[in-house]
Amino acid sequence: MATIASPQAETAHDTFPINGTDYIEFWVANAKQSQLYYRHVMGFELLAYRGPETGVRDRASYLLQQDKLRFVLTTPMGPEGEIAAHIALHGDGVRDLAFWVDDCRDAYAKAIERGARSIHPPRVDRDENGEVVIAAIATYGDTIHSIVERKNYTGTFLPGFVKSSPSFVAKSAGLKYVDHCVGNVELGKMNHWVEFYSRVLGFYNLLSFDDKQISTEYSALMSKVMSNGNGRIKFPINEPAAGKKKSQIEEYLDFYRGPGVQHIAIATDDIVKTVRDLKSRGMEFLSIPGTYYETVLARVGTIDEDLAPLAELGILIDSDDEGYLLQIFSKPAQDRPTLFYEIIQRKGAKSFGAGNFKALFESLEREQAIRGNL
């Protein structure tokens, strides 16, 4: 395995406890249409809505849920304001990776004290179901982290959202929770944001990969994985490295017009079933050469699954000292080659598929070449 475990893990201390990912909010050009994709194709359920019909004049938001995953799709009601400007610059993308905490005020104060830039201080939103306290801090690019305290709230999601009862309810695709979220940053900025997560949030550098480990004939990148103490939040951070041609990170930065969330990895308990389901509904995945499967078991050892369906679907396999994992990557979820999804099933492994990097990046390069961006 081409990975380096960080010695910082034993001495890291969270600045404040994080219970997990509260939600991920996307700012998109047409949330009404986008939410249909996430429901029909990915199996999310529409739980709640906030918009002009509920008294919010400048935006419309749809809350989607599947098991422990909560996605919020938000669109502006006109060309003015920060949402419209964000979409004009970046296209559809992730705005907010929100943390679920027990004490928002304490968490925000500690983050600011350690050097975080404030997006907004703690505010209290109330309705008949109680109150939610929310603050927000900035991270790379235009991405933010909301800090959400909901211990005194019994409603569906947040005050202002009205529960939805749609006639169409999608069948779950078996997606469970956020495994990790990957950020792409500019050349020379990876260590800056590693230091930010360490200093401000008390995260530690779980794993590191350099350009010798993550490279193909044409391109390379470097990556460091930051994790909070309980391991519920994991943020790999990528930056491009010198290569013969444009790397996937450079392509992302060009089309997103800056740093942002590259992909969201979602856990499943049965990747074969989940991927078959997603493909049948229209989700597109990267293709892997059949030769990959001729030698993969010699590299990773014995696995519980039959190899044939994994090869049929293009599911990758990797292992570490604690077990193995199965993973597959989607094509971009929008026309700009920016955000995409990873589906992952862990069978003990705590790593991120370093043994698959070469096969994955060659597949990504084939897609870049088709787009004329390699």
Write a structural description.
The protein is about 25% helix and about 35% strand. It is an alpha+beta fold and about 375 residues long. It has two domains: about 20-165, 2,3-Dihydroxybiphenyl 1,2-Dioxygenase, domain 1, CATH 3.10.180; about 175-370, 2,3-Dihydroxybiphenyl 1,2-Dioxygenase, domain 1 (Roll), CATH 3.10.180. A nine-stranded mixed sheet has the order 1-12-13-14-11-15-18-17-16, with helices on both faces. Strands 7-8-9-6-2-5-4-3-10 form a nine-stranded mixed sheet. The two termini are about 25 Å apart.
Structure summarized in a few sentences:
The protein has nine helices and 18 strands. It is of the alpha+beta class and 374 residues long.
